[in-house]
Amino acid sequence: MEDILKRLLDAEMRAEAQVEEASKQREAVIAQTLEEARQAEERFQARIDALRAPYLSQGEERSEQAIAELKKKYEERSRHLRSLAEGHEREAVDAAFAVLRGASGE
Questions:
Q1: How far apart are CA 106 and CA 57, in angstroms?
Q2: Backbone angles phi, psi at 67, to 5 degrees
Q3: Would you say residue 90 has pLDDT above 80?
Q4: Could you read off the pLDDT of 9-62 as tens digits, one per residue?
Q5: Which of 2, 43, 53, 92 is the least crowded, having the fewest Cβ atoms under 10 Å away?
Q6: Angle in degrees, CA 29, 35, 40, rounded to 5
Q7: Helix (H, G, I), strand (E, B) or coil at 1
Q8: Residue 1: which pLDDT band, with cuts at 50, 70 and 90?
Q9: Measured between alpha carbons, how far is 66 from 74 in angstroms, rounded to an integer?
Q10: 4-13 b/e with 16+ CB inside 10 Å = b?
Q11: What single-letter DSSP state applies at residue 106?
């Protein structure tokens, strides 16, 4: 009977050792996985600027193009308004002279 109990006790101790070893391996796998995830996050964070750069560059180019187009439209509109103002100024001067001539002829 002692022999059976001794074998059962030995089997239980081996089982506990296996469970402890499996638990240590599990903890090691978890720690390794967490470290790999942390490193992957660091690599991603380091690449964010490189990932954003093309979009920022493209956005800046589009902004500059839009600004150039708006300036061109503004300049065209300004020239058009200046031309209209000069034409109206001539008409006003002519009208004023006509009024003055009409007033002096009466």
A1: 72
A2: -65, -45
A3: yes
A4: 899 999 999 999 999 999 999 999 999 999 999 999 989 988 888 999 999 999
A5: 2
A6: 125
A7: coil
A8: confident
A9: 12
A10: eeeeeeeeee
A11: -
